[in-house]
Write a structure and sequence with these properties.
By secondary structure, the protein is an all-alpha fold. The protein has 3 helices and no strands. The two termini are about 55 Å apart.
Length: about 130
């Protein structure tokens, strides 16, 4: 288990710990999305620089065409960044709905516990005396 792992309560019928875990997963996905976007932006800048410098290089037309084709293929591969961002965004929205539902269940369970009698037995001492049968 990593240091980022959450110790969920042993008795958590309402799912509050699970809701908290959902929030942590959402944050991880947001960091992943940020890293992917940053990498995509940096790659695009680098590919554009290569494409700008390429015509000035002393290379044959065939070599330049090959490099241009490689850069175009790499830029096309950057669609991965867009798809990954969309997928992480979708996962975040699903986790957010799940988190809200778990928190709602937790609130409902807490309200149910407050409605229950705090002391179902009223006797305060043990002494000899009469016996009341129910």
């Amino acid at each position: 288990m990593t240091s980022d792992a959450v110790d969920l309560p042993r008795h958590d019928p309402a799912g509050l710990g699970a809701a908290h875990e959902c929030a942590l997963i959402e944050a991880d996905l947001e960091r992943l999305k940020s890293l992917i976007n940053d990498a995509g932006e940096r790659l695009l800048i680098s590919f554009n620089q290569v494409a700008a410098v390429l015509p000035t290089l002393a290379a044959s037309e065939t070599q330049r065409s090959q490099v241009i084709e490689a850069v175009h293929s790499a830029v096309t591969a950057l669609q991965f960044q867009d798809m990954a961002t969309q997928l992480t965004g979708h996962a975040q929205r699903r986790l957010s709905v799940l988190e809200e539902r778990l928190r709602s269940l937790s609130d409902e369970a807490a309200r149910g516990l407050h409605l229950a009698h705090a002391h179902p037995v009223r006797q305060v001492e043990m002494s000899a005396g009469s016996i009341d049968l129910f």
